[in-house]
Amino acid sequence: MRPVDGRSQRWSSHRAARREEFVEAALRALARHGPELRVEQVAAEAGVSKPVLYRHFTDKAHLLAALHDRVAVLLMERLEPALDPDDPPHLRIRTGVDAFLSLLEEHPNLYLLVSRTVPAGATNEGEGVRAGKELAAQALTQLFDDYLHAYGLDTRGAAPMAHSVVGMVHSTAEWWLEKRSMSRQEVVDHLSETVWDCLDGYLRRRGARLDPDTPTSPDDVLVARAEHTRTPD
């Protein structure tokens, strides 16, 4: 077995840590100056010269790709609590909507930057907001699929319903970010109700009901259905 080069590992860890420092500096520069990525502003925030920054990022597009990655990570970290099956359905919806809007509220210029740009290179076409939206849609698709299956319904509706919800939330959030005519909580209230109405209406039209305020996992639905249809001895 080839021995591990400790110096190489330490150098790689150091470079990764320095890149993270520059990403943080880029976040501060965007917050201070607006949604345009200017390398000289990032370098100034980091307290280094542009040549030093370029030792860790090959070019501006490389730094932009790192910011796209950061948005995708931030978005999925914030959406994760909404997948907790121990919470009631309506609370999970509200948690997910609020998580997304909180990201826009805290990092508006970062969001505007990554929503308007695509990093160079074919492998980067799905990064940033696009990747976050796709991951959110995938998670919702799996969740809807589980519930539809538990109710004995056609699961082919899960994916279009999930993408519709993600698109609606995303479009409303961008409107709010531009207009700011309502508070974040007001938008969360309205949007959460609308998303719930979509899910509730979809189920009711197919003869199924889901209590918005009772924690009910797909397994709970399957058990309840089995008990309801069980033939007495």
Q: In angstroms, what separates the terminal alpha carbons?
A: 65 Å
Main β sheet profile: none
Give the mean pLDDT: 86
Secondary structure tally, helices = 10
Q: How much β-strand is present in the residues?
A: under 5%
State the helical fraction.
over 70%
The value of Rg in angstroms is 22 Å
Task: Describe the global form.
Answer: elongated
Question: Can you write the helix and strand succession as a string?
Answer: HHHHHHHHHH
What oligomeric arrangement do these chains adopt?
single chain
Description:
The protein has 233 residues and is mostly helical. Helix content is 71%, strand content 0%. It contains 10 helices and no strands.
Considering the chains and any ligands shown, give keywords for the structure.
10 helices, about 230 residues, mainly alpha
